Amino acid sequence: MSKEKLVIFDTTLRDGEQSPGASMTQEEKIRVARQLEKMRVDVIEAGFAAASPGDFKAIHAIAGILKESTVCSLARASETDIEHAGEAIRPAARKRIHTFIATSPIHMEKKLGMTPDEVVERAVKAIGWARRYTDDVEFSAEDAGRSELDFLCRIFEAVIRAGATTLNVPDTVGYTLPTPFAHTMGQLLNRVPNADRGVWSVHCHNDLGLAVANSLSAVLAGARQVECTINGLGERAGNAALEEIVMAVKTRADIFPVETCIDATQIVPASKLVAQITGYPVQPNKAIVGANAFAHEAGIHQDGVLKHRETYEIMRAEDVGWTKNKLVLGKHSGRTAFRNRLTELGIELTGEDQLNAVFTRFKELADKKHEIFDEDLQALVSDEATLPEQEYFRLNYSRVTSETGEIPQARIALSVGGREQQAEAEGSGPVDATFKAVEQVAHSGVELLLYSVNAITTGTDAQGEVTVRLAKNGRVVNGQGADTDIVIASAKAYINALNKLHASQGKLNPQGEV
Ligand code: KIV
Ligand code: ZN
Questions:
Q1: How do beta strands 327-330 and 371-373 pair?
Q2: Distance CA 224, CA 214 (A)
Q3: Whose CA is nearest to atom 8 of ligand 1?
Q4: Which of 383, 401, 416 corresponds to the end of one domain?
Q5: Is the domain of 171 the same as that of 22?
Q6: 255 and 378 belong to one structural domain
Q7: What is the model's pTM?
Q8: Does residue 487 share a domain with residue 358?
Q9: DSSP state of 321
Q10: Atom of ligand 1 minimally distant from the CA of 11
Q11: Same domain, 247 and 265
Q12: In DSSP terms, which residues pair with 467 in a beta bridge?
């Protein structure tokens, strides 16, 4: 049976980045975009160009780098948003503008303050503005999951006539269920007279844990693009997880009349990269990319798998990119081997100075830890990628004492805007004491929302990777730090988050405003 193509549209860099604290630097976004292209994602939504100058620059940079994947920017249905998007994607070999407007009664009345007629008129104009920049224009009816079917038919017919080539049906608030959503998709395909002139798409949120189920059921009803994110990252409970969509379609090829172009062996590296960069760890029992996804604990399962793998395994771990941690470099590796490995990982350092700094850190790490894995290199580069101007706070020194029966104490020296200050504090443990000492100097007034530690690789000599999520005045940031000493990793993560709070300006949420 010949299969139709299912377009994979990844929005990790846009909707994924709307998760609290998941904002990424330009360098981090480029690393993720390269990995997505390596995985052969068809369309990469690289951001919302009008959100901030930083977002615009990151999309523009990605557009100049990628060769195969289509680079897309989101834009509200406004002329200035679309101009930003069009300029941001200009360098791309393949480019798309994704414009949207809300279509549910509640959003039109309460959020937009527009009548349905005005919404249709604006949507049609938006397609015209977008077509000045590219023929590849996607239209989304925001909150389609709660919109009236007749109105959806009307607006989609109008935007297709105006030149929209992809028609996206988002379940913005994660409200729909598989059967009614498939029905909506089927009705749109049947009732919109020019439906055959575009590719129909779905974009599902996971508020009821149904984002993947809803997306797949729309695919069975005729959708030919799915919008998804790595690890299911995204607003609130997240978006449909790319890895689950891709592997469901592949594993149940007997059911789905479609196939994707994704190189599934790149899924686990992409998952690890996104988790490491955003500070959103993957739960161990997460499908496909969780640490336990292929671990057979129960004795009866192990016995079955040993006798015949397929008794309990429907996919092979290696097919989605699980490998034993690969030893890549060691103490005696030279600069050329080091640089080559970074290139293979899609990491491009800006100039010799940065390469020297990262290489020095690599040698220091190789002294403490004999085997250096890809995951170590990713963490090391993230640590070192902070530019001096983004480092208002820097840890110069730390000493921690922790002894049975004694109160842990920390002494630190922190550079604040170039001036060194020292502090000492006690705490319930060495990490608590260190954070208190940092606060004595920083006086940040932040609230600690999350503290988590993960071993990057296996063994007691592994680097600990710490994520710290801080909030201040409604802003939330994640900081990361990695070190073989987890107290130092914790201090780095805390200081990294403080620097992000210090550096970042507010940025616009595309769905938050009119
Ligand atoms: O969830 C949503 O509706 C969106 C749109 C902007 C497509 O993210
Ligand atoms: Zn969304």
A1: antiparallel
A2: 14
A3: 15
A4: 383
A5: yes
A6: no
A7: 0.88
A8: no
A9: T
A10: 8
A11: yes
A12: 452, 480
